[in-house]
Amino acid sequence: MEAQYINKAVKDLLDKLVGDLPGYRWDSACAFSDGRSMTKIELNIWRKDGQEAAGGIAYQLETGDVLHFHYPPMGKDGPDQIVDFLLDLYNLERKLTEAALRL
User: What is the longest distance spanned by two Cα atoms in the chain?
Assistant: First the structure.
């Protein structure tokens, strides 16, 4: 998948997350780029109107490969591709939100 499509898919999934789950937000930054074939993007996901960090993910824009992450609900193993990772993240956060609303 080309970088522009990966970038759009990531943005669309993150926008869906914050659109569907109240109090969630996200931000991203380019952590590194060699200007040719390696761009490292770091994402942060926040809960409770930015009061609580849900986790962070770093991925390579050109390939969509997840380079590393800190997202406790996922444990140590997560999908290798950022789009798959965000789909799992969305489902986990939705379940956590629904469970919290039932309390």
Answer: 50
Q: How many residues does the chain have?
A: 103
Rounded Cα–Cα distance for residues 88 and 102 (Å): 21
Eight-class DSSP state of 30: E
The span from the CA of 45 to the CA of 43, in Å, is 7
Which segments of 16-51 are extended strands (E)?
A: 25-33, 39-47
The model's pTM is 0.91
Pairing of strands 39-47, 25-33: antiparallel
Distance CA 6, CA 101 (A): 33
Over residues 1-54, the pLDDT tens digits come to: 788 999 999 999 999 999 999 899 999 999 999 988 899 999 999 999 889 999
